[in-house]
Specification:
With about 950 residues, the chain is α+β, with helices and mostly antiparallel strands. Helices cover about 25% and strands about 35% of the residues. The longest helix is centred in the C-terminal third of the chain and has 97 residues, at about 755-855.
Length: about 950
């Protein structure tokens, strides 16, 4: 399987080569010989299984599988899982196909793992063996070949196809089956090398040259040949006709340390694992490119299995642990495992030697970027002590030391200055022949002499503060950062030998504080670093202000404590142990690359970080216990890879106790979850194994309103989910740039039991029954209510009729009353008229009587009474005519018919004249009118009124007329 993947990789690179015709730049992956690639260790304490790892495979989704001493191990870049065989056998071999099956072989057992009921389950194939065939040994190799799977033990080859197994036997024992492209080769012990063609073994002529036993690796070689690795005879090449030993230093190495397995790398390299000393990587010519063993990063020197994946990772299954080697890593490492030279503060390459400045002194070793030379670091005599800086000035290597400053010549040093603590040395912009060095006790002046090179001139007078950083601005002033506290600007004399003026800066000048203020030259501009960000100095205001534009672009690296020029408008920014390469080459745009350097976090000596450029795209980085080589061209290759899809690895019920729901996402369709178990945890991972910062973002359709923030979390809990359908989506991002495709997991939270379909059916039936009963009850009630309403309506109608009758009756009575009142008023008017007529008549008769008494005869004398007596009698009779009273009485009775009755009933002693007076008073007549009607004087009227009050017993405060009117 590994060779098949390698063949695919080779074709992949051929395609890339063709694409270059369309102006697409590609870079051939190269494995460097300097140091070792980045190695990631997975000890058994991490994967929680057995020590030994016998085989490795990778599936189509990017999940890694390991044949382990305790079973099958899986790794997805984040989570490890262990699955045990039926009888807890060691898994010796593992392979995957494109259908999601993982084939494993062990002692007396082989079969496959697949998703069943959303869980990875094992299915044995041994039950398909023909009758009489048993397997009583280990299955060491498995290869998937189109529609068939080949299992190989030391005694038999089993071919599984169409749910049947065919067995191939040999007269002698097998060793190992090897796959090269689409061909299969196997060694038959004591017989030689054979090719498996169909279901037959075909002998390879001349294979006896390989020895009678021990062919452990067969890989594709140039010109369609083979390169064969043996346990005792080393390497051979095969051109299709004959076998030829590959006589190189690698051959001797593999014979000495016992070759155990091999794998093809990047189409032009070969990695061989050994029993005794890790692994080596060689090129097509047999040249050793890398030696990787326990001293250079492996956990163990016994390599049991090798696997090269499609992301240029070399996986090693060890006798104790698993390691991943990042073949195209831009970082190559060298670590001092023995503690020979202590902590590294600076490093540099000069005249084919690599120098390491440490806390113990200056060490050197031979350097050859083209040949793999073992480093042999030695201490330069008399260099013992702290080395602060190594720098090349005009082709001279200068060493800043605790004791002073030295010039380094090969493996010797010579004194330049005895001023203690040579922290940093810089050329003056105003006069490049002069250099200023910051020391423990101020500044030292050096001069560059054309003939003799760098020479110490003098200690600059007038300034003695510890000077950690020194820079000269465009005006020629010298800026000095104190080793701990303070910032100074110095104005030097024309000869640079003394300080004319010194100015100290602190918070009063706009700085965020006095401590840890450092000075750097960034694109010919002096910038000042602090924990609060970068600052610049304004000459006019004599103030420091934040460098807002730079700080905004740098993000978290705005608080960097160191800047190192990387050349080509690139700079290294060191932020308290974290490293970034910042590119300022494009105006208005700042590119920050920090993710690929995350493995260096905390490994450099803080505040004394050192990175030197040793080539156009190669840098030497000092770390605590060694150094790192960084190649930016290798990083370009890595950036072109497409991210795999995120995998939904586990879905768990976390309601009250943890139980597995699925470990394959929607491997078998949408998942249904009981409503009472509606608290779940979804774990996911990106099967991306290179060093990178992987962030995840998720969205739960039916629950979330928007995508979550990017986080490093690889699982999410959802609690108290309501019933419904949900779609969980997750995607990943590496290095804050490349974004993967979305992974989708659909699931349904079922309705509670009281809302399921049966319950709803019961509820429906019950509802219908209740509806029918309710209808019956309602109809009955409706009938009763309608009857009641009918009765009430009838009663209301009767009441309305009664009220209408009463109203009509009242109306009639009212009309009758009004009529009576009108009649009464009319009669009152008539009565009044009648009374007034009587009054007028009596008044007229009285006036006639009075006039008669005034009559005279012709003599002017009054007439005698005799003469007027008749007339007076007639007048008196007219005035006292009872017919008038009777007429008045009748009219009065018609208008006030009960008046006299009541009056007589209450006061029977009243005489007719009293009744007359009462009638006249009832009509509210005046005394004068009453006197006329009664034919008495006004005095007589008053007397009668008085007597009448007595008879009627009218109270004193009561008006007699009102009293009579109230009767």
């Amino acid at each position: 399987m590994a060779l098949l993947i390698n063949h695919f990789m080779l074709n992949y690179f051929r395609v890339l080569l063709l694409l270059s015709c369309f102006a697409i730049n590609t870079y051939a992956s190269e494995i460097k010989s300097i140091g070792v690639p980045y190695i990631e260790n997975y000890p058994k304490s991490v994967y929680s299984s057995g020590n030994q790892n016998w085989s490795i495979a990778k599936d189509k989704n990017g999940v890694m599988y390991f044949g382990n001493a305790e079973g099958l191990l899986t790794f997805d870049g984040r989570y490890w899982q262990k699955y045990q065989m039926p009888n807890r056998q060691i898994v010796r071999s593992v392979a995957t196909d494109n259908k999601g099956r993982i084939y494993t072989g062990s002692f007396g057992e082989f079969g496959f793992w697949s998703i069943k009921n959303n869980k990875l389950s094992y299915s044995s194939l041994t039950n398909l063996l023909p009758k009489g065939i048993e397997i009583n040994d280990e299955v060491w190799k498995i290869y998937v070949d189109k529609d068939r799977v080949i299992f190989q033990s030391f005694s038999k080859i089993f071919i599984y196809k169409n749910n049947k197994i065919e067995v191939i036997k040999s007269p002698s024992s097998f060793l190992f089956l090897h796959k090269v492209n689409n061909r299969y080769f196997i060694e038959v012990l004591e017989k030689g090398l054979f090719e498996l063609v169909g279901n037959k073994l075909v002998y390879i002529p001349n294979s006896e040259k390989l020895g009678k036993e021990g062919i452990l690796s067969i890989l594709p070689y140039k010109n369609n040949g083979l390169i064969i690795g043996t346990s005792k005879q080393g390497l051979f090449t095969y051109d299709g006709k004959d076998f030829t030993p590959l006589n190189t230093p690698a051959n001797a190495y593999l014979k000495t340390y016992q070759l155990n397995n091999g794998v093809s790398l990047l189409g032009k390299y070969f990695a061989y694992g050994t029993i005794l000393n890790g692994l080596i990587i060689i090129d097509e010519n047999g040249k050793v490119v890398q030696r990787i063993n326990k001293s250079s990063g492996l956990q163990n020197n016994t390599v049991l299995s090798l696997y090269a994946d499609n992301e240029q990772n070399l996986w090693t299954g060890l006798d104790n642990g698993i390691d991943r080697i990042e073949l195209n890593s831009p970082l190559y490492f060298y670590f001092d495992k023995t503690g020979q030279f202590g902590t590294v503060y600076s490093s540099i390459i000069f005249n084919n030697k690599i120098y390491l400045g440490t806390n113990q002194g200056l060490f050197y070793s031979e350097w050859s970027p083209d040949n793999l030379l073992p480093f042999n670091f030695r201490l330069i005599p008399n260099s013992q002590g702290q080395v602060w800086e190594l720098t090349i000035i005009d082709n001279e290597l200068i060493c800043g030391h605790n004791s002073g400053t030295f010039k380094v010549n090969g493996d010797k040093i010579e004194w330049l200055s005895r001023s203690a603590g040579g922290w940093t040395i810089k050329k003056l912009n105003s006069n490049p022949n002069y250099l200023i060095q910051g020391t423990y006790t101020g500044l030292s002046l050096f001069i560059e002499a054309p003939a003799s090179g760098l020479k110490f001139t003098t200690k600059i007078a007038g300034f003695d503060a510890p000077s950690r950083y020194v820079e000269q601005d465009n005006k020629g002033d010298i800026w000095v950062a104190h080793a701990y506290k303070g910032l100074y600007k110095l104005n030097l004399s024309p000869s640079y030998t003394s300080v004319i003026s010194t100015k100290y800066f602190d918070e009063k000048n706009g700085l965020p504080g006095n401590y840890n203020i450092n000075i750097f030259n960034l694109e010919n501009k002096i910038v000042f670093s602090s924990d609060a960000g970068f600052y610049t100095y304004d000459e006019l205001s004599d103030k420091f202000t934040k460098y807002a534009a730079l700080n905004k672009e740098l993000g978290s690296f705005q608080s960097s404590n160191k800047i190192i020029n990387a050349g080509g408008k690139k700079y290294w920014f060191i932020n308290h142990g974290k490293t970034a390469l910042v590119n300022f080459s494009e105006p208005g745009k700042v590119e920050i690359d920090s993710n690929q350097f995350s493995i260096l976090d905390g490994r450099m000596v803080q505040y004394y970080e050192n990175i030197s450029r040793i080539g156009n795209s190669i840098y030497l980085i000092s770390v605590d216990d060694g150094f790192v080589i960084y190649s930016s061209t290798a990083q370009l290759n890595a950036q072109k890879q497409k991210l795999p899809a995120v995998l939904i690895r586990r879905v768990e019920d976390i309601t009250d106790k943890f139980s597995l729901i699925s470990e394959a996402g929607n491997g078998e369709g949408a998942t249904e979850i009981q409503n009472s178990r509606n608290n779940i945890r979804i774990s996911y991972a990106l099967p991306y194994y290179r060093q990178a910062k992987v962030k995840y973002q998720f969205y739960l359709e039916g629950y979330s309103r928007a995508w979550s923030d990017w986080t490093y979390a690889t699982q999410k809990d959802f609690t108290n989910l309501s019933a419904g359908n949900y779609v969980f989506k997750v995607r990943a991002k590496t290095d804050d740039s490349s974004v993967s495709e979305e992974a989708v997991y659909t699931f349904t939270i079922l309705r509670p039991w009281y809302l399921n379909n049966w319950a709803i059916l019961c509820y429906t039936i019950l509802f219908v029954v209740v509806l029918i009963l309710g209808k019956k009850i309602y109809e009955r009630k409706l009938y009763r209510d309608s009857q009641k309403i009918s009765d009430r309506l009838q009663a209301e109608q009767e009441e309305i009729l009664r009220q209408e009758a009463e109203t009509n009756e009242k109306q009639i009575i009212k009309l009758q009353t009004e009529k009576l009142q009108a009649e009464l008023a009319s009669k009152n008017r008539e009565l009044a008229n009648s009374a007034m007529t009587l009054v007028y008549k009596n008044e007229l008769l009285q006036k006639l009587s009075d006039e008669i008494t005034k009559l005279k005869d012709e003599n002017g004398k009054k007439l005698s009474d005799d003469q007027t007596r008749k007339i007076q009698k007639v007048i008196n009779d007219g005035m006292n005519d009872e017919r008038d009273w009777h007429l008045f009485e009748n009219s009065f009775n018609e208008a006030h018919e009960s008046f006299f009755k009541k009056l007589k009933a209450q006061h029977p002693d009243l005489v007719p004249n009293d009744l007359k007076l009462c009638a006249y008073l009832r009509m509210n007549m005046s005394s004068k009118e009453m006197s006329s009607l009664l034919n008495i004087s006004l005095r007589g009227v008053e007397i009668r009124r008085y007597r009448l009050r007595k008879k009627l017993e009218v109270p004193h405060d009561k008006n007699l007329t009102e009293f009579l009117m109230e009767l």
